[in-house]
Amino acid sequence: MLRRLWPILELSFMAKLSNLDFNLISLYVTVSFTSCRKHGNVDLAKQVAKRIMELDKNGSCSYVLMSNLYVASHRFEEAMDERLLMKEKKIEKEQGVV
């Protein structure tokens, strides 16, 4: 149910994201990207990813999820850009995660 409503909400509480605990942030990211992927809302996913990257500068989650979202949207060049950005920043994806 929440996944269907998510694009409508337009992430109005994104500014308060830094006050959430880690488990809630993980849930937020998962639901956000799942909803954005389902509805093809790449722009909203970018906003979520940018905010998560600000909070976790060395985490690979947002980069990998954005790359996967770009692939699902047939935006292969942008997907490759995300992966190259990870490589430039020396951010590695943990095995079995995402």
From TrEMBL:
Q: Which InterPro entries match?
A: E_motif (IPR046848), PPR_At4g14850-like_plant (IPR046960)
Give GO terms for biological process: RNA modification
Indicate the segments annotated as coiled coil, or none if absent. Answer: none
| Domain of life of the organism encoding this protein | Eukaryota
Q: Which GO terms describe its molecular function?
A: RNA binding
What name does this protein carry?
Pentatricopeptide repeat-containing protein
Organism encoding this protein: Dipteronia sinensis
